[in-house]
Design goal:
The protein is α/β, with parallel strands linked by helices. The protein has 14 helices and 13 strands. The protein folds into two domains: 184 residues, Rossmann fold (3-Layer(aba) Sandwich); 128 residues, Rossmann fold. Helix 3 crosses helix 4, helix 5 packs parallel to helix 7 and helix 9 packs across helix 12. It is globular and about 60 Å long.
């Protein structure tokens, strides 16, 4: 596997620019970015993360236990649960906060004098227009599913501008499927130079199935089906819940929150909705489950699927990202036809 960005020895600072990052230890937001930053810090690198303030959160301003310095930049109320896209869709004026973050991040990057490398998670806005227009020795752009989806909907002229600004950058896609889509959106040349590497996972002191069930008060013999994620339309949680109702005598638990929650609770009164829980508790539900169901069709390398399999939990999912490819070498991952 290719070493993570900035892993080679150097004295310069590695700066991560991201619109999603945990504001506290249990926050699931951007945990994959935090895992990568922490990995570099443990290897002895100086790591700084530029992330947007989340209204209502009180993030610490000191380096975390892994030695990562986080600088929280003003962003109004554009960012936070259940994600910037969902928040802006509900209240378009929140884009003003996103603009504040872009300008603050660009100012901060220009103020650094010791940057060796910038790692921009998400094509927009972290790579374009933040990092792409900031003097730097090296830029790595990490492409996920949500940001590429935004870019795909932009006018062709804007996409050409983005492609030109990233011509000298190193691109990393979290799945082969995303690299193919990147080529269609921004041109085959960028896609050919991109490498595929899923983001690292950090599961901490994960529980075994029995311990997780005792912690969550789940009966030893219960048939537990879980659905984990943001309750937004694009995640297709209703389709997953319809599939869960086909499992005889199943206890169905939905872990997560979002604008779809109330409608889904009315539609599926027998399912238990936990709401948003700390990441450690979400991992406990994954460990306790007999099966994780996922119906989201627009994914790159879905973290929740990777986490479930790392914990030994069977996954049933529709085709998305590289899941069909993974299922060829993982008997615990079942890919089925998309639900109607």
């Amino acid at each position: 596997m290719t070493p993570p960005a900035g892993s080679r020895a150097a004295d310069g600072r590695v700066v991560f620019v991201t619109t999603s990052y945990p504001t506290e230890p249990g926050d699931p937001s951007g945990h994959f970015v935090a895992a990568e930053a922490s990995e570099l810090a443990r290897a002895g690198r100086r790591v700084t993360v530029l992330a947007p303030e989340v209204r209502g959160a009180t993030p610490g301003r000191q380096a975390n236990a892994a030695g990562v310095e986080v600088r929280w930049l003003p962003a109004g109320d554009a960012f936070g649960w259940p994600g910037a896209l969902a928040r802006v869709a509900r209240r378009p004026w929140r884009l003003a906060g996103a603009t504040r973050f872009v300008l603050a991040a660009r100012r901060q990057l220009r103020a650094f004098t010791d940057v060796e490398r910038i790692v921009a998670h998400f094509l927009v806005p972290s790579a374009f227009p933040v990092a792409a227009f900031t003097p730097r020795p090296a830029l790595e752009v990490v492409v996920h599913g949500s940001d590429l989806g935004v870019v795909e909907r932009l006018p062709a002229a804007v996409r050409r501008r983005i492609a030109a600004s990233l011509a000298s950058s190193e691109l990393r896609c979290v799945s082969e499927e995303l690299r193919a889509r990147l080529g269609e959106a921004l041109g085959p040349e960028l896609a050919r130079g991109a490498r595929v590497q899923p983001s690292p996972l950090e599961l901490g002191a994960s529980l075994g199935r029995g311990a997780a069930r005792r912690l969550l008060d789940v009966e030893k013999e219960a048939r537990l089906v879980v659905i984990v994620g943001r309750l937004v339309a694009s995640k297709r949680c209703e389709q997953a819940l319809r599939a869960a109702t086909l499992v005889p005598r199943a206890r169905v638990v939905v872990v997560g929150d979002g604008p779809e929650r109330r409608r889904l609770e009315r539609r599926f009164p027998d399912a238990h909705f936990t709401g948003q829980v700390p990441r450690t508790q979400a991992l406990a539900w994954l460990a306790a489950a007999d099966v994780l169901l996922s119906a989201s069709e627009r994914e790159g390398a879905p973290s929740v699927v990777r986490e479930a399999r790392a914990l030994g939990t069977h996954v049933v999912t529709v085709a998305a990202g590289d899941l069909e490819l993974w299922s060829e070498r993982d008997a615990g991952l079942t890919v089925v036809g998309a639900a109607g």
